């Protein structure tokens, strides 16, 4: 993105990190800027490949795995990205808009928990993981599938929001929703 913006003649500046960029143009040249960008993008082929480091089922994910992955990828910053994880076949139980409406939180469980129940029983499903997406538009929340099976890619993190960490101990095979937080 940044490289593209640097080659737009109508742009006064281009800055930011390699995957995104900011730019500016003169107010009286805004239409020329738009025309140039649209012309340059007319035959551009966007890469729709999704890159991830690991693939897990929701049943595989626990606090120990999250800490292991994060300790291996503990160095982050420019050119050091956190591990991206693909989780297949998760079922969306619930979705909520948080904050000022620009954050999506979805509660998820394994699709296998839905195999022998009717749609009316979806409300009784217990979440095994929460997924959050930040800085989104309203239509993303509206279009995010509910009561459907999806695959999700993001980073894994243990929920320790504001130093809160659940202390409730659960049975070994019982899902622990609060200790699995997935950002995508």
Provide an overview of this structure.
By secondary structure, the chain is an alpha+beta fold. It folds into two domains: 2-41, no CATH class; 54-183, no CATH class. The chain is built from four helices and eight strands, in the order αββαβαβββαββ. The strands form two sheets. Strands 4-5-6-8-7 form a five-stranded mixed barrel. A hairpin with a 4-residue loop joins β4 (85-98) and β5 (103-110). The radius of gyration is 21 Å and the shape is elongated. 12% of the residues are buried. The model is unreliable at 166-171 and 174-180 (pLDDT under 50).
Order of helices and strands: HEEHEHEEEHEE
- Give unreliable regions as ranges: 166-171, 174-180
Number of domains: 2
Number of beta strands: 8
Mass-distribution shape: elongated
Helix content: 10-25%
For the largest beta-sheet, the strand count, sense and barrel status come to:
5 strands, mixed, barrel
CA-based gyration radius: 21 Å
The number of distinct helices, counting runs of at least 4 residues, comes to: 4
- Overall average residue pLDDT: 83
- Major sheet strand order: 4-5-6-8-7
Structural class: alpha+beta
In percent, how much strand structure appears in the residues? 25-35%
N-C termini distance? 20 Å
Seen as an oligomer or otherwise, the chain set is single chain
Would you kindly provide a brief summary of this structure?
The protein is built from 4 helices and 8 strands; from the N terminus they run H-E-E-H-E-H-E-E-E-H-E-E.
